[in-house]
Specification:
Layout (H helix, E strand, L loop, with lengths): L1 H17 L1 H17 L8 H23 L2 H9 L1 H7 L4 H30 L4 H28 L6 H12 L1 H15 L5 H30 L1
């Protein structure tokens, strides 16, 4: 089983860095949202600081949704997904490797970009650090939920809109706790609770997502 895990992991990383546009597109979208939204609010430092956590987290959510199209696109196109469905290796194990590779590729980049965006909004070093932690942990849950939605719509033409409709309500708890952790720091209170809740939700979603996505893929192909 570890050989299959390593093969899937290596393939995901090759696809991730071979098709650089798939990696850069969500980051560019993240940067555009972060830059454009402040144009419609009070440009003072105090006002920007108050809305910064919400804006950055909304940009993260939208960037992740934009990236979900590639989770199963290449596998479905070249027949790899059909082979995995008939393989004796448990499908959830393969999907767990896919989830980990996709999260490390995109989640870590967004985790590094988020505090830079926060600093540009005038967040303190402590608030920017908490923002980095919540985005790093929260993107795992965002990608995990996206895997399930992507598996449900893998056979649907133009399924990206349907994925967004399914996911955006489910993303609300992570967005609330992630942005709320930074707001708690800004209020001078410890952010341990919201940070732990964000990480716990992500771990729960990451645990449930591979088996649920495996069932969804089998239903989609039956």
């Amino acid at each position: 089983m570890m050989r299959i895990w390593n093969a899937v992991w290596a393939r995901e990383w090759q696809l991730l860095f071979r098709q650089v546009q798939d990696l850069l597109q969500p980051l560019i979208y993240f940067a555009m949202v972060v830059m454009i939204v402040p144009l419609g609010v009070d440009p003072s430092d105090d006002a920007l600081g108050l809305v910064a956590p919400a804006i950055v987290w909304i940009a993260v959510v939208l960037a992740v949704v934009l990236s979900l199209d590639r989770l199963f696109r290449d596998d479905a196109r070249d027949g790899t997904l059909a082979v995995l469905l008939t393989s004796p290796t448990p499908l959830w194990w393969v999907l767990l490797a896919k989830l980990g590779a996709h999260w490390l590729g995109l989640g870590c980049l967004l985790g590094l970009a988020a505090p830079l965006a926060g600093a540009a909004y005038g967040l303190s070093a402590t608030a920017s650090g908490v923002l980095c932690l919540t985005v790093l942990s929260g993107t795992l849950g965002l990608v995990a939920l996206g895997m399930v939605a992507g598996a449900l719509t893998v056979g649907v033409r133009n399924g990206g809109v349907l994925v967004a409709i399914i996911l955006l309500p489910l993303y609300v708890p992570l967005l609330v706790f992630g942005a709320g952790a930074v707001a708690t720091v800004q209020a001078g209170l410890p952010a341990t609770g919201p940070v732990y809740l964000t990480a716990a939700l992500s771990m729960l979603y990451a645990t449930l997502a591979p088996p649920l996505a495996a069932v969804a893929l089998r239903l989609s192909y039956d």
